[in-house]
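Exam prep: given the inputs below (a chain plus adenosine-5'-triphosphate), describe the expected output before reading on.
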Amino acid sequence: MLNPQQHAAVEYVDGPLLVLAGAGSGKTRVITEKIAHLIARRNLAPGKIAAITFTNKAAREMRERVAKMISAEAAQALTVCTFHALGLKFLHIEHERAGLRRNFSVLDADDSGALIKELAPAGIKPDALWRLRNLVSQAKNAGLTPEQAADAARGAPELEAASIYERYQARLAAYNAVDFDDLIRLPLQVLESDAEARAGWQERLRYLLVDEYQDTNDAQYRLLKCLIGPRGGITCVGDDDQSIYAWRGANPENIDQLGRDWPNLKVIKLEQNYRCAKRILRAANTLIANNPHLHQKSLWSDLPDGPPIRVLECNDNDHEAERIASIASHLAEKHKARWNEFAILYRGNHQARALEKALRLARVPYHLSGALSFLDRAEVKDVLCYLRLIANPSDDAAFLRVVNCPKREIGATTLEKLGKLAQTRHMAMLDAARNDSALKAMASRPAAALAGFVRLIDGLRQTAKQSSAADLVEAVLERTHYGAYLAAQAPDPAQRERRMGNLRELVEWFRAMGKDGGRAGDLTSQLALLTHADRDDPGNALRMMTLHAAKGLEFRFVFIVGCEDGTLPHEGAMDEGRVDEERRLMYVGITRAKELLTLSFSARTRRFGELLTNQPSRFLKELPEAELHWQGRNPEADAEVARETAESHIARLAALLGD
Ligand SMILES: Nc1ncnc2c1ncn2[C@@H]1O[C@H](COP(=O)(O)OP(=O)(O)OP(=O)(O)O)[C@@H](O)[C@H]1O
Ligand SMILES: [Mg+2]
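Solution:
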């Protein structure tokens, strides 16, 4: 049952609506209910509704939730996706208006990073490269052209970035490719400059729903502004206390901007939290009260008080990890809980390492999200791109990834020439490389290398006709001398072995998929299976993720580790006076817990081989002392915990004996 405010938010369709409310108050629930309402009660065609979420994972979850309320057919027609996916959909339809050819490629962060590195001065240091990429990306997100970026430059680094930006865009155009930033920037350019396109899209998408609105950046806001038609068909839900992406350009000011741009904006506040035990909510509210507030919110919960929030003081990271693994095991037994009801949250991915080790020893199944997945490993991606190119010679993104991998001395200028030719002749890059006059216009070495590459791919295409996909992978590895290339790339034998192991595993995957006699002719479908299969479903495993990745999720048992000054709040943020954003991050973490919250810190941390002494996080001191139980400080309370532990041991023994 929805509460009256939620109900009002679902029913209101007379103009733009903003639902501004704290964590766990049912904002996301309002979006799913409203989608069902728009279809069932307002007769809106599902194809005209778009819900925008912050991550692909959130989109998948929302789609599943909505699917239970509406017909399968309606669910199919809905658009539920991220801003970037919406931009991609737009560009597929409007490629001409955006100046792209059909079948343009999308460079992922890796590919575009590699391209910027090629354009950057040789030997650039990783952190300088990182800053350069950021500057280019910022200019793109601010909607600046390279010339405008140069004009706006305030110093040498920005001027340099503007010049790289210009060459980077030229290269993208030559490749008929876009990067992630373009997925927002190009649709925006089209919509802001072309009234006809704008009117068309306002008709195509009659109602928009945006989750986690506080984390939209300026370009995304402008995109929304273009898409909202005269009817004002939009519902945004958000929480300014959970704005944690300022470092990536998110602008919580957009909350107020909505009211300025739409004076008829209706604002609804939700005040009941349905997620957290009272004590957890009190702690979260007390913590966030330390931040300045523009929008006052008071959040209450009808749920029981729940047990005290535990604070663990540990000797070092290994000790912390061991204690958490053992506490999680006890809790799982005591509450007969499933592992996927547990989450361990941390500030940075590197903190997972000690935890992984301890969880393995304790035989706790876990899933690391956000860590580099198998399919994202460089060597696996290389091979998959060969397969993509073999299956589809006009896959330019795949062509660009493998044409110089292993190194074939086909330089950037050569590729740029090739890209321009492909563009003027409307052909794929691989086909352009077959063009004799094009090759003649190039220096002889790269021309010969290109011709060799074409022969290699043609040969592999022949092989593909007669062999299984697994055999084809082996042929790719052999004919490209990939092993030798890896050896040169990874001089460390252990690393080389790991990478070769990944490739062997890939061959095994294809063998397993092709068991029922699959030929490489099915390569395309096998590849699609590989990349679209939901390999992300962690099943019944404890979740480990960063606090950022935990946004929007909820778990019965939550651990936040590394509650130390320097870790959380993060050192860099402390230096730069961004503690408020770290506090919001802590608020997000605390409010993920439904029943039991455990906070831990280590007295010492090993960093770069040095043993450093830590101070407990300032956030621990900001929490209400009465709600906390510092383990090790109060013998009586500890005895209680110890008794529970012993009970769960006895229960386990009894279960074993009973078997
Ligand atoms: N009216 C209601 N009655 C009972 N449970 C509800 C109600 N509304 C929401 N819930 C439940 O409360 C929990 C939190 O809801 P939801 O995830 O929608 O909150 P949220 O405001 O989006 O939280 P966050 O700010 O963390 O994203 C969910 O388990 C949801 O099913
Ligand atoms: Mg939510």
